[in-house]
C-alpha cells in the first residue's frame, strides 16, 4: 500500500465527503488545505448537462471576464501588421511580431501562453493551426483573440478574461483566483462565473444547466458547494 505523506493525511482530516458546503464557508476550508509553499490557484469545477430536447448535445465554449481577475500571469504575444508593431508594444504585450513571429511558431521556438492576432494576419497564421491548436493557442474571434483593438485584447487577457469549455463528459473548469485573495473577492468571482455560465443555457434544454459545483486549490482537496446550480 502506498504510504501517504504527512501533509496529505493532515489535509484529509478537513475533507467534507458528500457534504455540501455553503459558499460563505467553502473558501476558508479550501485555504486550510492549501498548504503548499506557493500561492495556490483556487479553481472551480462544474458538471453541466449536455442533453438538449433537440439539436444534439450542447457544447459550451465562451469567455468570462472575472471582476477580480485570477491572479495568473500570462505571457501574451501579438501578431500584427508592421505598421501596428509600435501600437502592440505599447499595449502591454510581452512579445510582438509580424512575419518574423510566425516563422518562430513554424519552427516551434516560441515562449508565450496567450496569442492575439489581427484579422489581416490570420490568413498567414492559419496554416499553423496544427502547432497552435493542441496547445490552446490558436486565436479565435469568439474568444477575443482575433482583433484590431490590440490594446483591449491584451488588457482583457491580463485582467481576468478566462476561456471556458466543456469536455466530452460535461466537465468545465477554471481558475477563479489565488489563495492570497480575500474571501470577498473569491465569492465575487465565483458568483460572476456561475451567473455567466447560466446565461449560456440553451432554450432547448430542460432542467438546470449546472448539475454540480466544486471548489478546490492546486494541491488541496475539493468541496462541493451548496446551491452551486
Description:
By secondary structure, the protein is α/β, with parallel strands linked by helices. The chain has two domains: 119 residues, Ribulose 1,5 Bisphosphate Carboxylase/Oxygenase (2-Layer Sandwich); 82 residues, Rossmann fold. It is 28% helix and 22% strand. The longest helix is centred in the C-terminal third of the chain and has 16 residues.
Detail the topology: elements first, then pairings.
Blueprint: H1 6-12, E1 20-21, H2 23-32, E2 41-48, E3 61-65, E4 76-79, H3 85-90, E5 95-97, H4 99-106, E6 114-117, H5 122-125, H6 129-132, H7 150-158, E7 161-165, E8 171-178, H8 183-198, E9 210-217, E10 223-225
Parallel strand pairs: 1-10, 4-5, 4-6
Antiparallel strand pairs: 2-8, 2-9, 3-7, 9-10
The total of helices stands at 8
* Count of domains: 2
CATH class label of the largest domain: Alpha Beta
Number of strands: 10
Helix content: 25-40%
Tell me the strand order in the biggest sheet.
Answer: 1-10-9-2-8
Q: What radius of gyration results from the CA coordinates?
A: 20 Å
Mean pLDDT: 90
Structural class: alpha/beta
CATH architecture of the largest domain: 2-Layer Sandwich
CATH homology superfamily name of the largest domain: Ribosomal protein L1/L10, rRNA-binding domain
Q: What is the ordering of alpha helices and beta strands?
A: HEHEEEHEHEHHHEEHEE
Could you please say which CATH topology of the largest domain applies here? Answer: Ribulose 1,5 Bisphosphate Carboxylase/Oxygenase
Amino acid at each position: 500500500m502506498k504510504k501517504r505523506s504527512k501533509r496529505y493525511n493532515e489535509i484529509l482530516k478537513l475533507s467534507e465527503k458528500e457534504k455540501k458546503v455553503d459558499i460563505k464557508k467553502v473558501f476558508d476550508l479550501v485555504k486550510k488545505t492549501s498548504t503548499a509553499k506557493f500561492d495556490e490557484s483556487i479553481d472551480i469545477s462544474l458538471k453541466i448537462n449536455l442533453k438538449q430536447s433537440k439539436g444534439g448535445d450542447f457544447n459550451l465554449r465562451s469567455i468570462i471576464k472575472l471582476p477580480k481577475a485570477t491572479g495568473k500571469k500570462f505571457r501574451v504575444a501579438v501578431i500584427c501588421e508592421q505598421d501596428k508593431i509600435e501600437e502592440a508594444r505599447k499595449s502591454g504585450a510581452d512579445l510582438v511580431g509580424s512575419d518574423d513571429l510566425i516563422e518562430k511558431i513554424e519552427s516551434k521556438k516560441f515562449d508565450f501562453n496567450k496569442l492575439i492576432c489581427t484579422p489581416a494576419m490570420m490568413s498567414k497564421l492559419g496554416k499553423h493551426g496544427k502547432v497552435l491548436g493542441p496547445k490552446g493557442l490558436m486565436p479565435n474571434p469568439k474568444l477575443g483573440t482575433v482583433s484590431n483593438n490590440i490594446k483591449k485584447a491584451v488588457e482583457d487577457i491580463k485582467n481576468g478574461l478566462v476561456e471556458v469549455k466543456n469536455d466530452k463528459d460535461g466537465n468545465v473548469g477554471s481558475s477563479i483566483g489565488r489563495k492570497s485573495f480575500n474571501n470577498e473577492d473569491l465569492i465575487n468571482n465565483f458568483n460572476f462565473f456561475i451567473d455567466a455560465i447560466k446565461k449560456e443555457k440553451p432554450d432547448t434544454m430542460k432542467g438546470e444547466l449546472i448539475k454540480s459545483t466544486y471548489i478546490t486549490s492546486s494541491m488541496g482537496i475539493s468541496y462541493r458547494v451548496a446551491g452551486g446550480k
